[in-house]
Amino acid sequence: MQNPLKKTLFALYVLVIVCMAAATVVEKYSGTDFVRSNVYGAWWFSLLWAVLTAAGIIYFLRHRCKSWSGIALHLSFVVILAGAFVTHVSSERGTVHLRQGAYISTCVMYDRHNQPHDVQMPFQMRLDRFDVQYHEGTDAAEDYVSQFTIIDHGKQYSGKVSMNRIFRYGAMRFYQSSYDNDMLGASVSFNSDPIGIPLTYTGYALLFLSLIYMLFDPHGAYRKLLRLSHLKKGLMMMVLLFALGSGAGSAQAHVLPKESADRFGRLMVLHNSRICPLQTLAVDFTKNLYGKASYDGYTPEQVLTGWMFYADDWMQEPMLRLKGAEMRDRLQLPEYVPVGQFFNSAMGGYTLGPYVQEYYGGNHDAFHSQVAAIDNKIQLIMELRNGSLLKLFPYTYKGNTTWYAPTDSLPKTMDREHLQFVRSIFFLLSDYALTSDYAQMDAVVGKMLKYQQKNGGASLPSDRRVAAERIYNRIPFATILFMLCLAMGVISFLYTIIRMCREDNGANAKGANGNDGLSVCSKRLHVSFFVVNYVVMLLSFCALTYCEYLRWTISGTLPMTNGYETMLFVAWLVQLLALVCGVRFRLLVALGFLMSGFFLLVSHIGQMDPQIKHTMPVLNSPLLSVHVSIIMMGFAMLSFTFINGLTALLLRLVSSTAQPKMIQLQQLSLVFLYPALAALGIGIFVGAIWANVSWGEYWGWDPKEVWALITFMIYAVALHTRSVPQLHRPTAFHVFMTLAFLTLVMTYFGVNYFLGGMHSYA
Q1: For the segment 506-524, what is each residue's pLDDT rounded down to a tens digit?
Q2: What secondary structure letter does DSSP report for 752?
Q3: Span 139-161, mean pLDDT?
Q4: 214 lies in some domain
Q5: 366 - beta bridge partners?
């Protein structure tokens, strides 16, 4: 009976995973409403989970588990699923659209299939006021606030909702949803789930406690694992050298002296919806055009001011990078071309114009997409040349500060002196630049700085923040550290493989003649190598910590709100784990180099945006920091299991006596797998709590949520070796852990850059 039950349970488990994975792909092409109605909200999907739960309970009871942590852990999932089912069948959710001063008594309700229908509310609502709160001096929203009144049986109740701040009225919870363009109306969403949410949260609490207890249970599998003698000896390892190549032209363009350009870069500017040094705009501008922060030895400030004052010269500089091969092949162009290449009066002026029109006409093939990307870069240059990019002039009126470019429509309340200053200043700067009168130019820039300080008000960043940003712009932390870590990684990897093979041969030699196969000199070399690795890792960790501190200081929020920042953070966590655990498990120092180098490389060469921007209002929650931190900790530890797996499989290929080392690596992977799953499970459900607080839905079957759950479920299989005895074998275990890492890659990268969803901001 048990064997058929086990096969049934396994088949159901796999089927649930496959259905969820397939649903995320279908959602991309058929839309969210389709999969909500036909998959997640369908009767068969609920039935599938119910049958899986029932089969799991029966199997669990037959196994007669004696571990309290195991019992509580599996029970928590049953309670969570029960809460989810209650929410699915009994919760009510909807949206009410309010207009200022109008009494509203109807709302839109959504059924289990996400189909809307109008419903009469048991009370009336009136919007009293809606406000968008902005970061000082910018157009970046900091919060959305709706103030309303509920009229129920003649009694009035005041309510207020904003992002991450809900309003409760009876069993109903109200959330800020959206607003009208005229700022006189807002949509407020609500839900009512008095039974499902408490039941689900009970499951979450039980899950948290059981996951933590699993790690500390003195009779549990994890504590027994830590007592194994193999894990007290330590090992060593690592992977791949990376060389950077660069292509550049020989620049002969006119530029400002470095000192004058640097002084210009100290001005403040409204860029990316925040006030920052002009240096930051210069760095982003140069990277956008050239792909790097400098051009042929010129600083980004020199590049920016060169385009401002000597544009004719710079039009002939080969600094416009063409990333796509399709465009280069079709137009017979090199990787780097001058902007002037695309302006030819004999060919009708702007030669890319017809292709750009075709792109916006609907032709989005690779060639036309690349043309559109180049056109965007050229438009950026045009915005700089016409001055619209340079919002350098603050004006404060009635306590509100707005930053203007010299070509903007200036407010009528601005006095004549200020207006003249804004309109004429760049003509003056241009004259001084063309006559090389840099002393006068520096003096004018000094006047602009004083103007900003006098009129910028509270919108100006603090001196500490400005200093941090200038340091951050000057030092390419991610570039330096990924090259360092990967270089140390290849050395450590080669050394470790050689040493492991020598240890095997030495053990065989000892068994044959009774002598230790490894010399004293070799052991001393091993210790010295480890010390050098550890010191370099410590220095790398300090540098990365300083980088994180600078980004935190600049943004004012924890640096983990987008893909680039989370890559830096997970690299930081990997190095922290390597330093803490590396004294006992020497292998981990090398692993730390490899994985942190990989994450830093991904952040460096990927599609991730390294620019520092204001956080979206929905992300301004302390739960976000907790959620991301815990999830990234889990990802960092799972990355160790992946490298362990690769190392073990490579050892099996190069050594005929690798079995003992593979067993040690298997045990080391399990050391990280247990806390990784605990972190992943807790992180997922902290995110669910955050989602419930933010938009009233603790689980919305978003692709990121689904794939995080899939990752958790697949890695959890590796802890059930009693049920899956094949994983006792080191080779099978390491193959499984290597392949399981693909789900993590899909969760982090695949969802962000292929599937999309609510987590696309990440």
Answers
A1: 555 554 444 444 566 666 7
A2: I
A3: 84
A4: no
A5: none
Could you give the CA distance from residue 104 to residue 98 in angstroms, rounded to a whole number? 7
Could you tell me which of 99, 122, 102, 113 has the C-alpha nearest to residue 192? 122
Q: Residue 192, Cα to own-chain centre: how many angstroms?
A: 32
- Tell me the chain's radius of gyration from C-alpha atoms: 30
Helix (H) or strand (E) holding 49: helix 43-63
Chain segment 49-90, per-residue pLDDT in tens: 889 888 888 887 777 666 777 778 888 888 888 888 888 788
Decide if pLDDT at 526 tops 80.
no
CATH label of the domain that carries residue 124 = 2.60.98
- Same domain? For 504 and 606 the reply is yes
Which residues lie closer than 8 Å to 595 by C-beta, 6 or more apart? Answer: 571, 574, 636, 639, 640, 643
pLDDT at 546 over 90: yes
Tokens representing 131 are: 């406000």
Of 592, 615, 638, the one marking the end of a domain is: 615
- Look up the domain containing 740 and give its range: 616-762
Residue 385 and residue 430 in contact, taking contact as beta carbons nearer than 8 Å = no
Cβ atoms of residues 125 and 150 within 8 Å: yes
CA distance 71 to 52: 17
Same domain, 13 and 30: yes
More confidently predicted of 253 and 737: 737
Provide the whole-model pTM. Answer: 0.62
The residue from 559, 588, 615 where one domain ends is 615
> What's the CA gap between 747 and 751, in Å, rounded?
6
CB 489 within 8 A of CB 238: yes
Asked if residue 72 belongs to a domain, the reply is no
pLDDT by residue (tens digit) across 204-218?
A: 888 888 888 887 777
Distance CA 203, CA 197 (A): 10
Asked whether 646 and 698 are in contact (CB, 8 A), the reply is: no
The answer to whether 88 and 50 have CB atoms below 8 angstroms apart is no
Q: How far apart are CA 743 and CA 708, in angstroms?
A: 8
Query: At residue 236, does pLDDT exceed 50?
Result: no
DSSP 38: I
Question: What's the pLDDT at 740?
Answer: 92
Residues 409 and 468 in one domain: no
Dihedrals φ, ψ of 516, to 5°?
-70, 125
Q: 10 Å Cβ neighbour count for 688?
A: 20
Distances from the Cα of 472 to the Cα of 157, 263, 283, 461, 544, angstroms: 49, 17, 11, 15, 11
Residue 367 within any structural domain of the chain: yes
Question: Which phi and psi (to 5°) does residue 271 adopt?
Answer: -145, 135
pLDDT band for position 237 (cuts 50, 70, 90): very low
Q: What's the pLDDT band for 527 if we cut at 50, 70, 90?
A: confident
Q: What is the pLDDT of residues 629-664, one digit of tens each?
A: 778 778 878 888 888 888 888 878 877 666 777 888
Does residue 198 sit within a domain? Answer: no
Q: Which residues contact 525 (CB under 8 A, 6 or more apart)?
A: none
CA 328 to each of CA 248, 325, 335, 366, 374: distance values in angstroms, whole numbers, following the listed order: 16, 5, 7, 11, 12
For 465, residues 6+ apart whose C-beta sits below 8 A from its C-beta are 553, 554, 556
Residues 409 and 483 reside in one and the same domain: no
- Both 347 and 423 in one domain: the answer is yes
Max distance between CA atoms of the chain, in angstroms, equals 98
Cβ atoms within 10 Å, residue 31? 11
553 and 621 both lie in a single domain: no
Q: Are residues 604 and 625 in the same domain?
A: no
Is residue 752 within 8 Å of 712, Cβ to Cβ? no
> Euclidean distance between the first and final Cα of the chain, in Å?
47
d(C-alpha 594, C-alpha 526), whole Å: 19
Residue 632 sits in the same domain as residue 576: no
Closest CA to 175 of 690, 701, 686, 625: 690
Evaluate whether 590 touches 640 at the Cβ level (below 8 Å): no
Q: Total domain count for the chain? A: 5
At position 405, the amino acid (one-letter code) is A
